[in-house]
């Protein structure tokens, strides 16, 4: 009986490291959010101006709180800016045409329950994972740089 118990323990001990290496990776966060030092409106205004200054096309700016008020509903300040540039978006779609469902890019400026303003956008790593894109790391790195740069520059006073 002792041999059986010792053998079982040895098997468990040997199997544990192999099992640990097969552990799933931590999932990629779908959104990247940066707290802004400005109000929602100031952040959205600054973001839109900076996008235009950098040659990005702003397709729409949607004020969800204003739209909610139009049907007698309350919503904290929430604005969505839809923007893009075919020089960046087209290579993404060449990697995976289905990624077009997530384009043009969007940035959400919103206020939390404590009155703090945030700027959020889709994590390019999550988009790459969602669409099972392989071999386009350079293109996604460029998108990450642009979105991260905009977010960091806009969030400060």
From TrEMBL:
| Domain of life, source organism | Bacteria
* Record-linked InterPro entries: DUF302, TT1751-like_sf
Its ancestry begins with: Bacteria, Pseudomonadati, Pseudomonadota, Gammaproteobacteria, Thiotrichales
Q: Where is the DUF302 domain?
A: 62-124
Q: Which UniProt keywords apply?
A: Signal
Q: Where is the signal peptide?
A: 1-20
Q: What is this protein called?
A: Putative inner membrane or exported protein
Q: Which CDD domains match?
A: DUF302
Q: Which SUPFAM superfamilies match?
A: TT1751-like (SSF103247)
Q: Which organism is it from?
A: uncultured Thiotrichaceae bacterium
- One Pfam family, short name please? DUF302
């Amino acid at each position: 009986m002792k041999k059986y118990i010792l053998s079982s323990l040895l098997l468990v001990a040997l199997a544990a490291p192999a099992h640990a290496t097969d552990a799933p990776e931590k999932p990629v966060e779908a959104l990247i959010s940066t707290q802004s030092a400005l109000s929602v409106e100031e952040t959205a205004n600054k973001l839109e101006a900076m996008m235009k200054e950098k040659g990005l096309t702003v397709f729409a700016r949607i004020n969800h709180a204003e739209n909610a008020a139009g049907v007698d509903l309350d919503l904290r300040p929430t604005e969505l800016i839809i923007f893009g540039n075919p020089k960046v978006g087209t290579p993404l779609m060449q990697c995976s045409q289905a990624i077009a469902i997530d384009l043009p890019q969007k940035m959400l400026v919103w206020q939390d329950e404590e009155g703090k303003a945030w700027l959020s956008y889709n994590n390019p790593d999550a988009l790459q994972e969602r669409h099972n894109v392989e071999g386009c790391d350079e293109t996604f790195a460029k998108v990450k740089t642009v979105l991260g740069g905009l977010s960091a520059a806009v969030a400060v006073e």
